[in-house]
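2024-03-11 09:14:02 DEBUG pipeline.ingest accepted 1 chain
2024-03-11 09:14:02 DEBUG pipeline.ingest length=165
2024-03-11 09:14:03 DEBUG pipeline.predict start
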Amino acid sequence: MGDQDFIDIIEENKQKIFRICKLYAMDPFEPEDLFQEIIYQVWKSLPGFQGQSAVSTWIYKIALNVSYRSNLKNKNLNKNMVKLDTIEVQEIKTVDERKDQAQYNALQECIRQLNKADQSILVLYLEELPYQEIAVIIGISENYVAVKMKRIREILFKCITPKLF
């Protein structure tokens, strides 16, 4: 595969990658760094891609693995760091926009409370991947994906309901 193939692959999958980055990132600036690391790992791994799965499946695996490793590394680094307050610029939002943002924040908070394996399954589900493809990416059976999704929905429902009502 050549440079143009790499560019095409990234262009086709960049939104998927960035959504994963936003979920796993710890602070507002980290998604861009995580995105760059994933792109680098895709580029580095491209010669070894054998086409045994769809390119998007392969990219999801790389994105989830890089995100997970980065998350672990940052948690270990942040144990010894003191975070300073930063200047925050907020946009003026309408009531509907604030409500949507509050719902989004509540959902993000609940998702972050899931274990990493469940987060990965949920991210892929939210990407509208079929259970079969999620099973291939995660390395579990399709039936187990269905069972895990049922449990994840229950956990999220219990978590988010008190936050929204």
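2024-03-11 09:14:41 DEBUG pipeline.report Helices lie at 3-24, 30-45, 55-78, 95-113, 116-126, 131-138, 142-164.
2024-03-11 09:14:41 DEBUG pipeline.predict end
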